[in-house]
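To whoever picks this up:

The nightly regression suite flagged Protein NUCLEAR FUSION DEFECTIVE 4-like isoform X2 as changed. Nothing in the input moved, so I suspect the structure step. Input below, exactly as stored in the fixture:
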Amino acid sequence: MKIKHRKPQNFPHLPVTKQRRMMNQPGKWVALMAAIWIQAFTGTNFDFPSYSSNLKAALGMSQVELNYLAVASDVGKAFGWCSGIALLYFPSWVVMLMAASMGFLGYGLQWLLLQGIVSLPYSMVYLLCLLAGCSICWFNTICYVSCIQKFPANRALALSLIVSFNGVSAALYTLMTNAVDPNDASLYLLLNALVPLIISVVAFFPILHQPPAQPSSADATRNDSLTFICLYITAVITGLYLITFNSTPSSKYGAQILLAGAFALLLVPLCLPGIWSTHKWLFRIASTGLSSVLHFRFNLVNHELQQELINVESERSGTKVITPCDYKEKESISRKMMGKENLTVLEEEHSAKMLVRRLDFWLYFVAYFCGGTIGLVYSNNLGQISQSLGYSSLTSSLVTLYSSCSFFGRLISAGPDFMREKVHFARTGWLALALVPNPIAFILLAASGSEIALQIGTGLIGLSSGFMFSASVSITSELFGPNSSGVNHNILITNIPLGSFLYGVLAAVSYDSTAGSSNQTAATLGDVVVCIGRKCYLQTFIWWACISIVGLASCFLLFRRTKPAYDRHYESNPSKTQPF
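Regenerated output under the current build:
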């Protein structure tokens, strides 16, 4: 009888909340698609080898001076932490338009220089390269922070997906250039200036109208994982399309058809989440409405009886309802754990001051410095490497090969998240395995100067570097806290300008000294001396192989130190090991 007098008004409102939550689901997917498009067209640093020789001839530079320009683009990434600070004080769309403006100015003036419209000193070109590199890092930060906020349960899957599309930028820009004028390398600079600006304007509204993040149930997380499977399949098809058709020679008209197909594939991910979310939403409304009409009274009584049973059981056992620990208790526990030498838990927030005091961070820094960064420097020198080996005509295809393999390396980095139900392995361990191809590739390049060796080596380095670039975002979030990743990851990638300078200077000095030591290895292209032969980069490849071995060793030590934290995380969070 008591049950009849209790007010049941609040109980039926639960389905309405679920309905509203389902209505907000498409919003986060649209934001994810906006991040994919931004990433796909803002990896403008990967096409530097395609126009570097033209830039070198226009300014009459030596190889060392050209390397400084490549370094300048990477030095811009050293200021990437400013984007994390800017996001704390400005809306994301403001930061995005600031990034687009920097890229438009940096690349646009360089294009005017190659067209002979303006005359700029070397120092000004250096600053323009720095500004362009800064814009890339700002775009990346916006996308990373957006995915971390919108997909807290599937953070790694979202990050790996969007970062992978950054690897196809060079292939897309090559298609666009071939579709307009295959013989004009300066078009890369014009497209680098205009396309990111246009994409930013298109993505303006999805970024501006992002719904607030809402906690997801276990069922919603599994549904999101299934959607990610569809998106990853689409991404693989896109990568195979670009690497297959971009490597085959085609006419201007053929390139236009291939470009239209690439854009169509990039539009497919925009439809999949919408169809999936709409289907689930309609199904939820229908099932909720039917159950509320037919079984409302049964559910109400069952709910009340469960509550009474819980209260009786609590009184008998004398136990209390478990509540989350107080914030101060969490903070004290965190401080105790941070005070220890080894990292004991994952996803604990680290300030910048705490970050630089950790040995794990510096092992991570060295692994990135000697692993991912050295692959990026290799791609910057790919134009001169192919020229010295007598494969100048293959430069565009090699850039596309590196870009496509980098794309697949970034996709492969999501493999641990799909296999975590069966294989509980630390992400730092996967990273160590991904760095193994680097020394193999450089040893192969040093041993042989054949076209096949160059292609295999470029592909291996692209795979390894792509995995590193993608997995590092998730690893930074796991080791040093998701909320601080916007700043902490930009602190990590300050190794890129440092490595770009040191490795680039090493390669450039060896290149120029080899070209000047013997007339048989030198050729003249205008006022510029060009090195020809295997000796031009032989010493560089040997040095890079040794450095990559150091990075592999550092990553292995990081894995050994962080493995207990990952094991403890899997044991205490068994639900996170079952995404499907």
